[in-house]
Automatic annotation (TrEMBL):
GO MF annotation list: structural constituent of nuclear pore
Record-given protein name: Nucleoporin Nup133/Nup155-like C-terminal domain-containing protein
Annotated localization: Nucleus
Superkingdom, natural source: Eukaryota
Species in which this protein is naturally found: Coemansia biformis
Recorded GO CC terms: nuclear pore inner ring
Keywords: Nucleus, Transport
Nucleoporin Nup133/Nup155-like C-terminal domain location: 145-800
Example GO BP: protein import into nucleus
Length: 821
């Protein structure tokens, strides 16, 4: 800042006697009362002195003129520059430098320009933190450089003639209605614009204002007023960037006003409603540059200009080029296309002929498709509503999807969706914008109701946008139209149903989709995955059903592969791998189903015992080892343990014997049941499921049955053991060999065992004696000759033992048997 206010003077000798002094008037008198408020090209004040010797012209030396003379001095020293700065202050001195630097170089001289540039950059100072005055409680503040402040001062002086003046004014025209006129003379606008362009050119060609280039600087301070030197530079860079932007916008606003004047703004404004003309009249130039109302006024005026051009059947391409070149930040080619499309839609609504309206709507869609990405959500909704009112439902979908695609060219919203839509993600605004676009299509479908819910209409929708397809599928599911998904085009259905969040419903639809598209192997994989999943609340019976369906689909897939093999060697080679994988999957799924069926029995047994928590736990699938260790053994579920032994092919004879002993002993001792009949019932219920396997050791079970029969002689009837085993699914031959082995080993119940063999022979004759060929092998054949020989030996033994009853019984059985020869 200046140390004090002062006036400078210089003496000039004028010959003769002074008669009169008068100021030479300028055609453009300065509006400033201060000699400091000088801009490039403004003339100095001149005075004519009339003497008896003639007329002498004296020019008043303004501070900028003094600086010009100082810089033009060939012996300029730094002390002279510092003295000048001390008089006028650093900010004003820098502002004068900008005045000189923006002059015509031919009028200023290269030495003056070089000196002004040197003063600006070497003496212009740096931004700094200034501490509060001693005793003051204020905060530290950042003081920007004189180079920055001088630019702000000079820019303000350049814009001062037009800044507060109205850009447009209303004046009465030929008719009674007021017309709009440009509020500032074109010559004034051009002068201001020329000075702004010179300043802008100087800035863009001198990137030394801050350590980095102006267009690469951050616009936010890093550390605030208390930051270090870098923070001060950041603050200055942000402010310089704002001044630069103000220059650009001011230049474009002036170009826009000149363009309106060239295109006869009064005539253009006649097409505007009176209320709109009143609203646009009086808009200040400052609002045109900085305010939202001014920007909106620009759009309204451009729309009126475009409408005028179109009504005169004049192409707006040239207008678009001019607007894009002169007012790039205020208007673009996309705006021209938008306004032209809106005009076409208006014409379509007013058209009385359907074909013409459809053609106009299609032409509007073609224009809008190229600029869809520039539409705001509100504009898109309004335009879609216009198309919808015209019955152009396809145009609604095409425009909305084009807007979504152009708004997110990198498809980042899709990646955001796949990642589970994380919070505070930079991609979320893109995702929301696309959702707003899709809502226009969904809203249209909502309004059309049931008429839109058919495969033909849905298949007509564009299918190349996967995210839109997912939104559409959600809408279909909400309306209970899941079956329509199977007829949708593209490959998005599979991706949608496989994506998170997963659910049983989506899983069911996925395997139905695979079956519908004859992808049976994939359907089986999904069904098996659902059966084995632990994240869904699925009952055990439903899991078993999934496994059963999976087995069926694997078999169908294998049949298809084998059919392909039969079509030739090439097909066989291609299908060999699939065949092997399919067989492996089939075996694994069948094993899982077998285990699950055992688990179902365990669950039913547990449920009958009232252990409901365990019942719910058993809704998940477990391995065969887990079933034994966690449920069957701890709960003493003997029947289930035997089934587990069979499924796992477990061969621990002692353990199996203990289990069978426990089962049959429990049945025998149950007071509510009928002794040996209960034992027989238990064996016959388990036998068909266990025989043949290590879980049904025939010799052991035979011995247990014989032992229990001896304990209950009053309940025993000959043939009890043999008939029980036969009804359990054991062939007669196997039963004979088991009984005969015990007889050979001279078991203590020899007579009982012999009678069992006799009863077995009679039983077999009763069930197989009708065969024409006794030696025919069947699933339940009996070695007749071996049995006959054994009966003969039993008869001899009973004769020697004088057991007449047993002998007679054996002879009757042998006769029956020999009758089959």
């Amino acid at each position: 800042p200046r140390a004090s206010l002062s006036e400078l003077w210089a003496a000039a000798q004028v010959e003769g006697r002074t008669w009169a002094i008068a100021e030479i008037s300028d055609e453009k008198p300065s509006s400033s009362l201060s000699d400091l408020a000088t801009v490039s090209g403004s003339p100095t004040r001149a005075f004519a002195v009339l003497t008896n010797a003639g007329i002498t012209v004296l020019e008043q030396q303004r501070p900028v003129d003094m600086l010009r003379a100082l810089l033009a001095h060939p012996a300029l020293q730094d002390a002279h520059v510092r003295e000048f700065v001390a008089i006028y202050g650093l900010d004003e001195s820098c502002a004068m430098c900008y005045t000189l630097l923006c002059e015509d170089p031919t009028r200023v001289g290269m030495q003056v320009l070089a000196g002004a540039r040197r003063l600006l950059f070497e003496f212009g100072g740096v931004p700094r933190v200034e501490a509060p005055a001693l005793g003051s409680s204020g905060d530290e503040r950042v003081v920007l450089s004189g180079r920055h402040n001088g630019m702000a001062i000079y820019l303000g002086r350049v814009l001062e003639p037009i800044w507060a003046r109205p850009a447009t004014v209303g004046r009465s025209g030929r008719s009674s209605e007021a017309q709009l006129h440009v509020g500032v003379a074109t010559s004034t606008l051009v002068d201001v614009q020329d000075q702004l362009r010179r300043l802008l050119h100087f800035i863009t060609t001198n990137q030394r204002f801050v350590p980095d280039q102006l267009n690469q600087m951050p616009v936010q301070p890093a550390g605030g007023a208390r930051g270090d030197a870098a923070s001060c530079w950041q603050i200055e860079a942000a402010s310089l960037g704002a001044l630069y932007e103000l220059m650009v916008h001011s230049i474009e606003a002036i170009s826009f006003l000149c363009l309106l004047a060239d295109f006869n703004l009064p005539a253009v404004s006649e097409g505007l409603p009176e209320a709109q003309r009143r609203q646009l009249a009086g808009i200040a130039f400052s609002q045109l540059v900085c305010g939202d109302a001014g920007r909106e006024a620009c759009r309204e005026l451009i729309l009126a200009l475009i409408n005028t051009q179109m009504k005169q059947d004049i192409s707006i391409d040239s207008l678009s080029d001019v607007l894009t070149k002169r007012c790039a930040s205020m208007f673009s080619a996309s705006d021209v296309m938008l306004y032209k499309a809106l005009e076409l839609l208006r014409g379509a609504r007013e058209s009385e002929e359907g074909t013409e309206a459809s053609d106009l709507a299609q032409e509007a869609l073609n224009l809008l498709s190229g600029v869809a990405g520039t539409l705001s959500a509100a504009q898109l909704r309004d335009i879609c509503a216009s198309f919808e009112a015209l019955g152009q439902h396809g145009a609604v979908a095409a425009l909305a999807l084009a807007c979504a695609r152009q708004s997110d060219p990198g498809n980042e919203a899709m990646a955001f969706w796949r990642d589970g839509a994380p919070e505070n993600d930079a991609r979320e605004p893109l995702y929301r914008k696309r959702m707003e676009c899709y809502q226009c299509v969904v809203g249209m479908l909502e309004k059309r109701g049931d008429s839109a819910l058919n495969g033909r209409n849905l298949c007509a929708l564009p299918s190349d946008d996967a995210l839109f397809q997912f939104v559409l599928y959600d809408w279909l599911l909400e309306h209970g139209q899941s079956t329509l998904l199977f007829d949708m085009p593209g490959g998005c259905v599979e991706q949608y149903l496989s994506a998170e969040p997963r659910s049983v419903e989506k899983g069911d639809m996925l395997w139905h989709y695979y079956v519908h598209s004859s992808q049976f192997h994939k359907a089986a994989l999904v069904q098996r995955e659902l059966a084995c999943s632990r994240e869904f609340d699925i009952g055990l019976a439903q899991r078993i059903e999934y496994l059963s369906l999976a087995i069926g689909n694997v078999k169908i897939a294998l049949d298809a592969v084998r059919t392909g093999k039969q079509q030739g060697a090439a097909a066989a080679a291609a299908a060999a791998s699939d065949d092997g994988d399919g067989l492996t999957a089939l075996r694994e799924t069948e094993d899982q189903l077998e285990v699950a069926q055992v688990q179902l029995e365990i669950q039913q047994q547990v449920q009958s015992q009232g252990h409901m928590e365990v019942v719910r736990e058993l809704d998940l699938l477990y391995t065969i080892s887990e079933l034994y260790d966690r449920f069957a053994y701890p709960l003493r579920l003997w029947d289930a343990m035997l089934l587990i032994f069979r499924v796992s092919n477990h061969d621990d004879r002692q353990l199996v014997t203990d289990v069978w002993t426990s089962i049959l002993r429990t049945a025998l001792d149950d007071a509510e049941r009928t002794g040996l009949m209960a034992v027989a019932s238990k064996v016959t219920s388990l036998g068909p499921r266990l025989y043949p396997s290590p879980a049904f050791p025939l010799a052991t079970i035979t011995a247990i049955l014989v032992g229990l029969a001896r304990e209950r002689p009053q309940e025993y009837a000959p043939g009890f053991v043999a008939s029980t085993l036969v009804q359990a699914g054991v062939p007669h031959a196997a039963v004979f060999h088991a009984l005969n082995a015990m007889i050979t080993d001279r078991a203590p119940s020899n007579d009982m065992l012999v009678r069992e063999v006799a009863a077995l022979a009679v039983s077999w004759v009763d069930s197989h004696g009708h065969l024409d060929m006794p030696d025919t092998l069947t699933a339940d054949s009996l070695p007749i000759m071996e049995v006959d020989t054994a009966l003969s030996q039993y008869i001899i033994n009973s004769t020697l033992a004088t057991n007449i009853d047993l002998k007679n019984e054996l002879q009757r059985a042998q006769v029956r048997l020999r009758q089959t020869f």
